[in-house]
Structure prediction request, 190 residues.
Amino acid sequence: MAVTDVTYTRHSAEAAAGLMDELCTVYADAYGQVAGEDTTVKADAFRDRATGALSARNYELVTARADGELVGFVFGYSLRQERDWFAGLDPAPEAGFTDERGGERTVVLAEIEVRKAWQGQGVGRSLHDTFLGGRLEERATLSANPDATATHALYEGWGWQRVGTKPGRPGAYYREYAVFVRRLPLLDRR
Prediction:
């Protein structure tokens, strides 16, 4: 199928809650089987993260469907100061970098996943652009596996800048994460 056969839809947190099983299925497919890894552990951790995100400020989900099948999704939310997203960022950022100014400065792109069969066809980029194109914040941030250099190059090609690394939280997949930031257009939509 061509990317033009894909429909992108925005969803609120309430609607996203009803799609959780489908989101988990796409997540598991996107990562596939990893030798020696218990896939239920990673899938359960994703479900916990995704369910927890539903209560975040200005949560939004964008789905990609082809012939009714969910082939990808992205979700995120506005960053609150108390979230302390940039804690431990190395190198230390300039003064004011971590200030959220009322929680409307930064959107976290928390997850972007595309089924294996649809990867490399522009679905991920379209999800990314649709999600960020509808946001009102000044900038976006995301964190990634620090060793995923191909993914880092992809993000940089999409306009993201790596600003450093930060330690993983207790129970996280990685001991540290690469942190990226991207400026968003300031749109007068309020």
The two ends are 37 Å apart (CA to CA). The mean pLDDT is 90. Residues 3-183 form a domain with the Aminopeptidase fold (CATH 3.40.630.30). Helices lie at 13-17, 20-31, 39-53, 123-133, 149-157.
